[in-house]
Structure formats: structure tokens, C-alpha cells
Amino acid sequence: MKYITEFRRPDLAEKLLSQIKRRSRSQARIMEFCGGHTVTIFRYGIRQALPANLEMVSGPGCPICVTANADLDKAIALARTPGVIIATFGDMLRVPGSRSSLQEVMAEGADVRMVYSTMDALQIAEETPDKSVVFLGIGFETTAPTIAASILQAGDRGIGNYYVLSMHKLCPPVIRAILDSGEVNLQGLICPGHVCAVIGSDPWESVASKYGIPCVVSGFEPLDVLQSVSMLVDQIESGESRVEIAYRRGVQPGGNRQALKLMEQVFEPCPAQWRGMGEVPDSGLRLREEYRRFDAEHAFDIAPGPAYEPKGCICGDILRGVKTPAECRLFGKTCTPEHPVGPCMVSSEGSCSAHYLYGGDVEG
Amino acid sequence: MKDKILLVHGSGGRLAHELVEKSFLKALDNPLLAKLDDSAVFELRGRLAFTTDSYVVSPIFFPGGDIGKLAVCGTVNDLAMSGAKPLYLSLSLIIEEGLPKSELNVIVDSIHKAAEEAGVEIVTGDTKVVHRGSADKLFINTAGIGIIPDGVDISGSNARPGDKVLLNGPIGDHGIAVVSQREGLSFSTQLESDCAPLGGLVADMLAASANIHCLRDPTRGGLATTLNELASQSKVGIRIEEEKIPVREQVLGACEMLGFDPLYVANEGKLVALVPAKDAEAVLKAMRRNRYGEEATIIGEVVAEGKGRVVMKTILGTSRIVDMLTGDPLPRIC
Asked: Which pLDDT does position A364 carry in this prediction?
């Protein structure tokens, strides 16, 4: 089976679209939680293809976007610390903190290395024993297990110069916080496929039962998203609210037990700062007491100075689904992918970047 | 240390001469180079095309090629994209001390092979060796000269509404082949770089029609960036169809994994041609007869509306703007 072209077949897309059009009657607002879905929706023009009564709004599912400036500043301050090598996923390099970005401190001589996996960071630590290697632990439940594994390996292999700055965030708590605020009225939620590959679909049950919102776990190809919308429409029209999995090839209701076990062993939930949402209880992950020696916050005296948000940037409102990029007066003017003001314009999964790159007015 | 390049190899002294003779002259032998004068001296008549490019690819060896082949093909292709017949190249190397001589020899050999295939001669050159850390193994600069045949007028500003957009094959092979070898990201793929000299293909296309308006090779920035450049230089709109753009399944797979869009991934053996509709079929046929154009296809057309814009009809039948590349594509987190 071809796992990509099969999920981009125009004939099947047309069938799903006509099914959605035939069945969808009520006005409904559907949030795609994940930035990966936002990109698919824009790349394939799915918003235009859906009937006018279905409104899609982007959610907070872009790990870099939701990282608070105070946390970004810590990473940048660490990069400036003599003897420290920062290992990070590529997306992080260009994100502006309060005063600078990793890319800028790199140009000033900081040793920042882009890695593709936590194990590469561990290897750097092993190869440069006279330096401290700090991995920027950013991401949702998708990346946390691999970072947990790297910490366990560092312990097993006796690598004493490997640290993690844990800025992990958890998805279900934040969606509940958004719904509790009452700012956004949602009739459907497309749940993040990669996150659910780890945590399963069960953690979304409370969203469906307590808030009465239909939930469907979706993959990232256009047919995945269309199928998920179609399943949501069926629930909306029949007045139901359940958790369903459209992404059967990647997700089990109970998730990936081994990954969850790793996460549980190394991390414990903690309050976390979200951009635009402030502190959300139990929505972050910190290293448990017995692994504290790997925790960069404990190992280094990080004093990044006060954090502040760029003036006029509404990334926070956009991440809560309250506003759209078009409502930002910086969008496309002072804030562009070349000169990003806020993180949603930097990350390839950020909704401002997706709007800017793919969402322009085609006519005219 | 005998088998490594040392600083002294770039000093201009005896060892430097030895390196030139043993490594370069032997492989790249031609009368103009063999004279070893300060300049290559030759006569040319007609409209000349002149171009230069520097090559800093990492790693220097990748599936389907190496920095040497790239340095010849890249410059040959820049000449060909002006409709020129590529003739002579300069070759300038900046070597980081410690580069194994065996690696240099392999690269010089592939420079020789690529030049031979492209029908160009390396007529002048230079070698510098720098301290460890001042370069990344090997940087190469080549410049090239070619002659543009009479009656050929190719420029990025020549596109006209109604022109067809032709592409000579699947996109993204080079970028993904190189990325697959990067430190920290070795993933296995049978994919090879498409790196190839396109002078012969262009000559075949021009033989089918001298009316080709624009030619460009979508290297860094990929197909999307090239089409945007052409639309903006010619002040026209370009419409393409996603379904018609060939991309190999392996490239699609790697792009999904890394969060790249194949439209922005680099190519080194691809070209885009904007050709008047009446000549498009003839040019397409000529392309398909050439080994570097077997999978050539028409992917769209030039329109008067939406000047400077590239719009793509997606597989869902919707339309979206295809913008230029911003920054370097960075792998995503999740």
C-alpha cells in the first residue's frame, strides 16, 4: 500500500466532499487542534472546498507557538552560557524570544546544533565530555517519550553532561482550559493524530462527555482530514458527541503503552505557562525528583531577565482560536515569514505562517 | 599525513605544483589548461553567456553525485538556461586542510566525467588550502562561458500569457538525497540526486523550437521559487496543477517525515521551460527523447491575471497561492 498517494486520491476526496455537503445542515465551528492539520487544510484548500456552514478554526497545536517567551528566553540565556552546547529541533532556531533568538546568539558565537532526534543530542554529549549539552525539550506528548528515553539512556551509559530543559506541554488539559474559558464556541474537535498515537483517544472522552463536543482523531493527509470532518458532521447532525478514531492506522484507544510508561517514569505533570493562556494546571511535564540531575533548570543558574511580548502581536488570541491571523494588524505587514514578530509566523505549523503562505486571496 | 591535503599544498610552492599536476592536469587534461599560463586565452565569436556559482554542499559525497559533479553541472546548467551552448569553465577550490587526497581524486574524477558529458573544458583554475575549521572540507567555485545561437532569446522576463509550463521530470530528488546523508539524519533511501548537465537537453529543445521564452533550473528554493521568479520577472500569472507535477513516492514520504513541501525542495537536473502553446508539443517530444527529459510533462500555463503570482489547482480542485521559499526549510518537531 502507498501510504501517501493513496491518501491524496482526488476521486476519493471528491466523494468525501460530496458526502459532507449532502449531510451537513447546521452551522458549526470545528477546531483543528494541531498545526499539522492546519497546514494540510491550507495546502489543499480544504476550507474553500467545505460548505459555507462549516467554519474551521485553528487551535493551539503548534509546540513552538505555545511556548511562552519566558521559556524561550531561558533557552537563549542557556545558549549564551559558556561551555554549553544547545541541541534543538530546527524549528526553534528562528523563534524570537523577548530580546533575541537562538539564530541570533548563534551568529554571536553560541554553540547551537540542530538535531533530528534526542539520541543525536546524547551522542554529542558523549563525544564532547568537557561541555554541557542541553537539549531543548519542546513539544507535546509526541516528543516527550523519546526525550524520556534519552534521559534513561544517559543514566545507563553514565553520560553526566547531558541535560534537558523541559518545556513540554500536554494537549488534553489545554483544550479543557480553552473550553472552560467560554471564549470559543465549538461544535467539533479534530484531535491531533501524532499526539494520540502516544496517548490514545481515551483522554479526549471528557471533552466529548463533559463539554458535549464531538471529537475525531485524524491523520494528516487530505483524505484523513476530510474523513474526520465527515465523521464530525455525522455526529453533529445526529446530536451525538463521542470520541472516534479516523486515524486507525496510527492510533489505538489506549495509546502506546510503552511510550506512556517511559513518559510516566521520567516526567511528572506540572503547571505550565502557555503563550496567550497563562498558567494552565497540570499541562506541562517536569523531570521527576530522581532524574533532577538531568534537569537544566536545576543544573544551571538561568537568569534571562524579564520576559515581554512583542507589541501588537495577537499570537495568544490566535492560539486560543479567538482571533484569526487576518485580524492581526501586524499580519503580512511588519510580521512576515522573513521578519516574524510572533512565533505563529515562524513555525512551519504556525497558523499565521500557514495563512500567509497558503491562504492569500487567489483572485485579484 | 602523506595521504592528506596540507596547508603547504596551497602555498604556490613545489607541493602545490605537484598537486596541480598529479591531481588536476592528469584528469582534466586539455591544451588550454596544460599551458598553465595565468589566463586561458581563446577566441570566441557571437553572443556570450557568462556565469559563476559557488558550491558548499554538505556532505560532499551524496547518492548520485558529489560536490565536483555538482560544481560542473550547476554552472553548465546556468549557461544552458540562457540558451547558451556551454564551452569553457574555470575551477577554483578552497580545501580545508586534512581532506584525504583520495577524496579529492574522486571529486576531480567526477569533475572530469561531468565536464566530458557536458562537452565543456576546464581551462583555468586555482587551489587554496585553509586552516581546519575555516572551510567545511571543500568549497568549489566554477565560472562558465557559452555561446548563444543566433535567433535564441531566452530570459526570465519573456513569458507571455498562453505559454505552457514544461518540466523535465520528478522534483525534489536532489534535496532529499542530500538531506538523507546529513549527520544526524541518516535515513535509508534508494533515492539518488538528479544532478545532471542539461546543455544537451536544452540544445534538443531549441532544435524543436527556437521560440522558447524562458528556461530556468529550479535548484535551491525548488520549483515554487523558480515559478515565482518567472511570474514576477515577466509580470504574468502562472497556473499549475498539483496532479500533473511528478514527485516520486520516496520524496513524498521523506517530505512528510521532515515537514517539507516538495515544491520547495532543491533539484540539480531539472528545468522549467515556458513555451508558446503552438510549440509546446514539439518541445515536449524533443525533451522526452533525451535521457534527462524522459518524464517531461506540461504542468500548467501562463495567464495574464494575477501578475507575479503562482496559483496551484490542488488535487481537491481548490486553488491556492504558491509562494516563494522563506528561509531554509527546517525540519519540524512533531
From this structure: 38
A216 with A269: CB under 8 angstroms? no
Closest Cα in chain A to B324: A357
pLDDT digits (tens, 9 = 90+) for B169-188: 999 999 999 888 875 566 66
CATH architecture observed for domain B164-321: Alpha-Beta Complex (3.90)
What are the structural domains, with CATH classification, of chain A? 65-170+257-295 (3.40.50.11740)
Residues A105, A108, A111, A113: is their CA dihedral positive or negative?
A: positive
- Nearest Cβ partner for A348 among B253, B259, B311: B259
Question: Which residues in chain B are contacts of A117 at CB distance < 8 A?
Answer: 184
Shortest Cα distance, chain B CAs vs residue A248, angstroms = 18
Residues of B in contact with A143 (CB under 8 A): 333-334
CA distance A227 to chain B (A): 13
Distance CA B252, CA B245 (A): 12
CB contact under 8 A, A45 and B256: no
Given this model, what pLDDT does residue B330 score?
60
Question: What is the rounded CA–CA span in Å between residue A150 and residue B185?
Answer: 17
What is the value of ipTM here, to two decimals? Answer: 0.79
Which helix (H) or strand (E) covers residue A152, if one does?
helix A144-156
Q: How many CB pairs under 8 A join A and B?
A: 113
Q: Is B319 on the interface with A (CB under 8 A)?
A: yes
Q: How far is CA B269 from the centre of its chain?
A: 6
B100 lies within 8 A of chain A by CB: no
The residues spanned by each domain of chain B are 7-148, 164-321
Instruction: Check B316 against A46: CB less than 8 A apart.
Output: yes
Q: Give the strands of the sheet with A188-192, arranged side by side.
A: A54-61, A28-34, A188-192, A215-218, A243-245
Q: List, run by run, the mean pLDDT of 10-residue segments along chain A (364 residues).
A: 83 95 97 94 93 95 93 96 94 90 94 90 96 96 95 96 97 95 95 97 96 97 97 98 96 96 97 93 97 96 90 92 93 90 88 84 51
Cβ contacts of A91 on chain B, cutoff 8 Å: 330-333
**Which residue shows C-alpha cell 493551539?**
A60
pLDDT for B27? 83
A contact test, residue of B256, B305, B325, B326 with most A CBs within 10 A: B326
| Closest Cβ–Cβ partner in A14, A195, A337 for B326 | A337
pLDDT at B166: 98
Percent of chain B with pLDDT over 90: 76
pTM: 0.86
By the 10 Å C-beta count (0-12 exposed, 13-18 middle, 19+ buried), A104 is classed as middle
Predicted pLDDT of residue B11: 80
The correct CATH number of B7-148 out of 1.10.443.10, 3.90.1300.10, 3.30.70.270, 3.30.1330.10 is 3.30.1330.10
Residue bearing the bigger pLDDT, B330 or B167: B167
